[in-house]
Design a protein that fits this description.
Blueprint: E1 4-12, E2 18-27, E3 32-36, H1 43-51, E4 58-63, E5 66-67, E6 78-81, H2 93-103, H3 108-122, H4 137-149, E7 155-159, H5 167-184, E8 187-192, H6 195-201, E9 204-209, E10 212-217, H7 219-224, H8 229-234, E11 241-250, E12 253-258, E13 261-264, H9 267-271, E14 281-287, E15 292-295, E16 300-309, E17 313-320, E18 327-332, E19 342-347, E20 353-356, E21 369-377, E22 380-382, E23 387-389, H10 392-395, E24 405-412, E25 425-436, E26 441-447, E27 450-456, E28 466-471, E29 476-479, E30 496-504, E31 507-512, E32 515-520, E33 528-534, E34 540-542, H11 545-550, E35 562-572, E36 576-583, E37 590-595, E38 605-609, E39 615-617
Parallel strand pairs: 3-8, 3-9, 6-7, 7-8
Antiparallel strand pairs: 1-2, 1-4, 4-5, 9-10, 11-12, 11-14, 12-13, 14-20, 15-19, 16-17, 16-19, 17-18, 21-22, 21-24, 22-23, 24-29, 25-26, 25-28, 26-27, 30-31, 30-33, 31-32, 33-39, 34-38, 35-36, 35-38, 36-37
Helix pairs in contact: 2-3, 2-4, 3-4
Bound molecules: adenosine-5'-diphosphate.
Adenosine-5'-diphosphate (ADP) binds next to helix 1.
Length: 618
């Protein structure tokens, strides 16, 4: 049994390289998860953090519910297989496979049982007495796998294990590893930069770029419904054609102009626009090569520039008007197609994609998040047409519920469930329409004027049907108007402490434990015992001279009300950073929200200015 949860994981290497940012993933028992992405995107770093070979800068890693951030690699019940299999040249295959177990002083008969079983699974029983130099590349890789199998780990971590093999062997070993996963029935996490390996092996694929997860889903969903242009072009070969054009309403539907022709979408596609009519204008139109057919009579006029006959399929490179790059079509084997021919291209518009030209995010299909503008008030989000009461635990992690403020609530589509969840939110809606994919259907609901989309693998949903949906807390997020998160991973402290007030002339001395603050006197506050509360967003970080110089920021200590802050943790909120600190006089930690160019990871002990505006006395 092995369930692995990565929560808000960050890795910043010494020297400042941000290799992994806000990585969140729940890996189920017996899953085969593949991390894929271009070189340097943070795949290996993530894997190595799971293995315990790399320290986690921030965030939590759980295995079977236990926090393992600080647990030694050897105590994590994992086995790792690397790309250079690093076999001991002077040892036989048997000795190589049993080496780790012998070090752990396992009884000889148990070692023998395990080595023989692993050898049988891998079909290398005949090689046990050979030395590595007498093995082929594929056989060596099997021995490396065998060395992992004999440990009987709960999780296999594989880092590009096939990249040293030639193309033919790679295809063969790919299938072997998939079979091995079925046979061992344990969790596999596999790192590769090869999209074909990812598509063929993973039960779930995590596509990464620049240290961020772009999309995590089954191969089919990633292929049919990529969330952005990066994922769309990363998976699939030849890759999706990406054509800059303009999207315009057209009757009840909409159309794009490609190569001098106006191409109409089916009406249902217009209903699937994310953001509705706001998205009309400049877009990227995406169409996969296999969703283009070649006609002799009508469609987009094109001239064939190159034909590749690959046996079962023919790849056709076409020139169309107003475009430098070829449009590539993949059609069933067709030897009638020749270079220089004038033809017409027809696009299967039910399979077409649209992306925002600036953000490159998809603007048609199932959104990653259902977003709603709303107002926050006392733990309730007011959508204008409906009010949702948020779970208490969620409210406890949220900043500033005291004022009614404009914000945005986002609901992670993949977390929406038709089954009740504990401590979540439930909403009701009426099915508007259903869009079917290969594995799953997208169900579009109408809810008091708003729309919500969720994906489901089961159930038959009919238009008009009433549906109740449940959203767990980790599927909810609140944002302010500038795009900063309003919810932390930690409980946001109320920043209150008992204090005594003494007013002399126009100054007020406020004593909080050993700390004394000097503030302008306030009307209506009597001398004596009160409660002081600090507004988290009005506290100011005071940099010392060295820190200010190093980070190119202005030195800014002037006030008397400066107290030492000792970091407990921090949480990045976007342009802002929530820091959780100990202050003398406050029993529980204090939360301050500061610009994100300040990090407690760089400076765990610093100073906070308690500005007069931050102080509330009651
Ligand atoms: P991938 O496995 O996707 O190729 P890595 O996880 O190896 O990516 O690297 C992610 C980023 O972290 C890269 O920019 C890389 O240069 C950097 N990096 C990796 N290891 C170290 C290290 N030990 N020290 C500093 N930077 C590192």
């Amino acid at each position: 049994m092995a369930n692995i949860v990565l929560k808000n994981i960050y890795k910043v290497y010494d020297g400042g390289v941000r290799a992994v940012s806000d990585f969140n993933l729940d890996i189920g028992d017996k899953e085969f998860v593949v991390f894929v992405g271009p070189s340097g995107c943070g795949k290996s770093t993530t894997l190595r953090m799971i293995a315990g070979l790399e320290e986690i800068t921030a965030g939590s890693l759980f295995m079977d519910g236990v926090l393992v951030n600080d647990i030694e690699p050897k105590d994590r019940n994992i086995a790792m297989v690397f790309q250079n299999y690093a076999l001991y040249p002077h040892m036989t295959v048997y000795q190589n496979m049993s080496f780790g177990l012998r070090i752990h002083k396992m009884p000889a008969d148990e070692i023998d049982r395990r080595v023989k079983m692993a050898a049988e699974i891998l079909g290398i029983e005949d090689l046990l007495s050979r030395k590595p130099k007498a093995l082929s590349g594929g056989q060596r890789q099997r021995v490396a796998l065998g060395r992992a199998i004999v440990r009987e780990p709960a999780v296999f971590l594989l880092d590009e294990p096939l990249s040293n093999l030639d193309a033919k062997l790679r295809v063969q070993m790919r299938a072997e590893i998939t079979k091995l996963h079925h046979r061992l029935a344990t969790t596999f996490i596999y790192v590769t930069h090869d999209q074909t390996e990812a598509m063929t092996m993973g039960t779930r694929i995590v596509v990464m770029k620049d240290g961020f997860i772009q999309q995590a889903d089954t191969p089919t969903v990633l292929y049919e419904e990529p969330i952005n242009a990066f994922v769309a072009t990363f998976l699939g070969s030849p890759q999706m054609n990406m054509i800059n054009t303009v999207l315009a309403p057209n009757g009840n539907s909409m159309s794009v102009d490609v190569g001098g022709a106006t191409i109409l979408f089916p009406e249902i596609k217009r209903k699937q626009l994310i953001g509705g009519d706001d998205v009309f204008g400049e877009v990227i139109f995406g169409i996969r090569p296999e969703n283009i057919t070649i006609s002799q009579t009508d469609g987009v006029p094109a001239t064939i520039e190159l034909v590749e006959h690959l046996g079962r399929e023919t790849i056709v490179y076409c020139r169309i008007a107003d475009r430098e790059e070829n449009v590539i079509a993949s059609v069933p084997s067709n030897h009638g197609l020749k270079r220089g021919m004038d033809v017409f291209l027809q696009f299967d518009m039910l399979k077409a994609h649209l992306f925002n030209r600036t953000t490159e995010q998809t603007i048609m299909g199932v959104p990653a998040f259902n977003n709603y503008p709303c107002k926050l008030e006392n733990g309730t989000v007011d959508l204008g047409i409906a009010k949702w009461q948020l779970p208490k635990e969620f409210v406890a992690r949220t900043f500033d519920f005291t004022e009614k403020r404009a914000c945005k609530i986002s609901i992670q589509t993949s977390k929406i469930s038709t089954q009740p969840v504990e401590n979540g939110v439930s909403v009701e809606g009426i099915v508007d329409f259903v869009s079917k994919g290969s594995d799953t259907s997208a169900v579009y609901l109408k809810m008091d004027g708003a729309q919500m989309v969720f994906r489901t693998a089961e159930g038959n949903y009919e238009p008009g049907q009433k549906v109740t949906l449940y959203i767990p807390q980790d599927g909810l997020m609140l944002w302010d108007e500038e795009g900063n998160k309003l919810v932390s991973q930690h409980v946001v402290s109320n920043n209150s402490a008992p204090c005594t007030v003494k007013t002399v002339g126009d100054t007020m001395k406020v004593k909080v434990g050993p700390t004394t603050l000097t503030l302008p006197a306030r009307e209506g506050i009597q001398d004596g015992e009160h409660t002081i509360t600090l507004a988290s967003d009005k506290l100011k970080v005071v940099y010392d001279y060295k820190f200010a110089k190093k980070n190119g920021i202005e030195r800014n200590s002037a006030s008397k009300n400066v107290v030492t802050a000792l970091a407990y943790d921090e949480d990045e909120l976007g342009a802002l950073n929530a820091v959780f600190v100990q202050l003398k006089g406050w029993d529980s930690y204090v939360t301050a929200v500061v610009p994100n160019n300040f990090s407690v990871y760089q400076m765990p002990k610093f100073a906070l200015e308690i500005t007069p505006e931050s102080v509330i006395i009651k």
